[in-house]
Amino acid sequence: MEQLIGAISSVGFPIVMCGVLCYYIFKIQTKLIESIQENTKVLSKIAINIEEIEKESEKDEQE
Fold first, then answer.
1. Backbone dihedral region of 40: left (phi > 0), alpha (psi from -120 to 50 degrees) or beta?
2. What is the model's pTM?
3. What is the CA radius of gyration of the chain?
4. How many other C-beta atoms are found inside a 10 Å radius of the C-beta of residue 61?
5. What is the distance, to the nearest Å, from the Cα of residue 1 to the centroid of all Cα atoms in its chain?
6. Is 1 buried (19+), middle (13-18) or exposed (0-12) by CB count in 10 A?
7. How far apart are alpha carbons 5 and 10 in whole angstroms?
8. DSSP H helix total and E strand total for the chain
9. Which residues of 13-48 are buried (b: 16+ CB within 10 A; e: fewer)?
10. Digit-coded pLDDT (tens) for 12-28
């Protein structure tokens, strides 16, 4: 019985800390994924605007 309690005491803390760190990483990763998705949307809009500006400048050059 003492060996079991000793094993839980020595192994229990690292296991709990791994769980806490996994939860923390999951929370941070979720925020990062949301930020990356938002940046992707903004970059797509910027690319569309640049293409429109390039088309307008080509039309102006042809005239």
1. alpha
2. 0.56
3. 27
4. 7
5. 45
6. exposed
7. 9
8. 1, 0
9. eeeeeeeeeeeeeeeeeeeeeeeeeeeeeeeeeeee
10. 777 767 777 888 888 88
